[in-house]
Amino acid sequence: MENATALARAAVLRILLVERRKHAKLTQAQLAKKLGWEQSTISMLESGQRRIEVVEFMALADTLDFDPTEIIRQLRATKAIHR
Question: Which pLDDT score is estimated for 25?
């Protein structure tokens, strides 16, 4: 079973990727086309139905023109919220 911090980081990663895509003014379909992926892949990554692999993360960083290390720094700072 996953720990709460890992789940929180996965959620933050999804939010950050959606923000980067929207900042680039791309739809899921447009981004998928640029990457040579199916639109459903982008949808599954953004919704959390599918985990992102490192090579996919790097392709997204290149295509959306963001520094992957900045995202990693933000994720490392993410802690679980205990209720």
Answer: 98
